[in-house]
Amino acid sequence: MSASSESFQAILDSLYHKYKGLTDGKVASYIPELAKMNPNWFSICVVTADGRTFVTGDAEQLFTIQSISKVFVYGLALEEHGREAVLAKVGVEPTGDPFNSIIRLDEYSKRPDNPMINAGAIATTSLIKGKGATERLNRMLDMFRCYVGHDVYIDMSVFVSERSSGHRNRAMASLMRHFGMIDDRMDESLDLYFQQCSMMVNCRDLATMAATLANRGINPLTGERAVPSRYIRDILSVMYTCGMYNFAGQWAYTVGIPAKSGVSGGIIAIVPRQVGIAVFSPLLDAHGSSVRGIKVCEELSRQFELHMFDPPMGCLHLLEQLDDAT
Ligand code: DON
């Protein structure tokens, strides 16, 4: 389907109205502060790789980014250490398990499976460089600032709530510390992980972050580079295979683009070189993903043929080159 800017905005508005009445799912409550979110909050935002923004619903409503942060911290680890060093600490294998599954460290390498599950994300966060907690936090916040285009802040109540209820994450970090997969800054790195999850964003910010990935690492609204383009491939591959946890296979089958969900109800999805999509609605399904978010992404993918294997995409370029060569 083709769409003018006006009709695309109308489609987003109609998706908003269509799914506003869908009240299936539950707000996350395993972190007490998250349970305070309003289940009615709902917004959809699309930012294009050339910097246009389409938005509907509660676009300015702030919430904590949660697991969506894992994508960007993975990018920072790649930038700071390079592909091989990061791969030595965190794998790229989907697990088919929930986000908080107790880790199965690889028998030989002792690595967590991938950077999207909590264990892998904690290992990734532990790689952030810097002298001491403040320098490492500032480095991380600065990275997020490049993606959203303005300063970002931590929600202190959520951070404290995460930290005081995060026994499972602490246990996984201890096990990884035992195997030498994270260094002796374990408590500092765990705090950093809880802080990254507690960073405040709105739906517009999430879509801008997604559009930055779609735009090969350059924020399309500010022109600032957030991550080297050579790592976009790594980030999007891991999002595609692992970003939706134990729903990743179904998501790849029905929506077919790299994505990441978080327990506060955000979902980002990336159509490389085209758009970043974000949906925010705190009502979650049994996999911990936004019910309305999945519906909206499924519809957008179907209506605009966004599935990676719908259009022939990259393959054609190769065929064209082969034709030229003969
Ligand atoms: O580690 C945790 O429990 C959270 N702060 C992050 C969880 C999250 O968003 C998982 N994703 N769906």
Give the strand order, joined by hyphens, for the main sheet.
2-1-7-6-5
What is the overall pLDDT average?
93
Estimated helix fraction:
40-55%
How far apart are the first and last residues' alpha carbons, in Å?
35 Å
Could you please describe the fold and organization of this structure?
By secondary structure, the protein is α+β, with helices and mostly antiparallel strands. The protein is 47% helix and 9% strand. The strands form 2 sheets. A 5-stranded antiparallel sheet has the order 2-1-7-6-5. A two-stranded antiparallel ribbon has the order 3-4. Helix 2 packs across helix 3 and helix 5 runs parallel beside helix 8. The longest helix is centred in the middle third of the chain and has 17 residues. The model has no long low-confidence stretch (mean pLDDT 93). It binds 6-diazenyl-5-OXO-L-norleucine.
